[in-house]
Write a structure and sequence with these properties.
Layout: H1 2-11, H2 13-45, H3 49-64, H4 67-78, H5 82-106, H6 110-118, H7 123-156, H8 166-175, H9 178-206
Helix pairs in contact: 1-9, 2-5, 2-7, 2-9, 3-5, 4-5, 5-7, 6-7, 7-9, 8-9
Length: 212
């Protein structure tokens, strides 16, 4: 079956390349947008307990929703295609990044903050030079989780016209061809594993030596 899947890839390089590129583009864009929203929001919420409680509870509720359900809910609002898929995947990526960012900021040692304040640092300097660097490992872990969820969820984007590797999986299921299904499933799995390794290495690289 794997041999037949490989033959299909070799016989249709442009179709496979386009699907792979769309999958990667969709996943990367959703992750980047989610990180750009959730990380600053998580830092801002760390000093606002009531708002943080509402936001974190909403994020936890969002994490319980199945990926396909989130994708399906966007169809009545945005229709089908790349844009609604991007919107839905961004929603999937937001909760783990927001929750980890908020938790990371809250767990920074108060003594380190007091010491920085005693040295005359402003609140902005404390956030930028003390709090954020110490919180980066946990924030990176949230991005790592989100990356895996987005890459996996992008497979389901094929159901709302998002394209990507999921097209091969849905076609393989519809035509009862396991080899065609593997054309999409194997690369998607490898992408998820690769993202986990890359972000895991990045998380280690960003961890301060004193916290390693």
């Amino acid at each position: 079956m794997l041999t037949d899947a490989w033959r299909y890839v070799l016989g249709h390089p442009e179709r496979f390349g386009d699907a792979l590129w769309r999958h990667v583009t969709l996943s990367a864009a959703a992750l980047a947008i989610a990180a750009a929203i959730a990380i600053p929001l998580g830092i801002w919420l760390a000093g606002r307990a009531r708002l943080a409680l509402v936001a974190i509870n909403a994020a936890n509720m969002g994490r319980t929703l199945p990926s396909l359900a989130v994708l399906a809910l966007t169809m009545p609002l945005l229709g089908t295609g790349f844009a609604p898929s991007l919107f839905a995947l961004t929603l999937l990526a937001l909760p783990p990044i927001l929750i980890n960012t908020h938790a990371a900021i809250r767990q920074v040692d108060p003594d380190a903050i007091d010491a920085a304040r005693g040295m005359g640092m402003t609140p902005r300097e404390i956030t930028r030079r003390i709090v954020v660097p110490l919180a980066v490992p946990i924030i990176a872990a949230g991005v790592r989780i989100a990356a895996i969820q987005v890459i996996s969820g992008a497979v389901l984007a094929a159901y709302i016209g998002g394209g990507g590797l999921g097209d091969f999986i849905t076609a393989g299921i519809a035509m009862m061809q396991v080899s065609l299904l593997l054309v999409g499933a194997v690369p998607a799995t490898l992408l998820a594993i690769g993202a986990d390794l890359v972000f895991g290495g990045l998380q280690k690289a960003l961890t301060p030596r004193g916290l390693a």
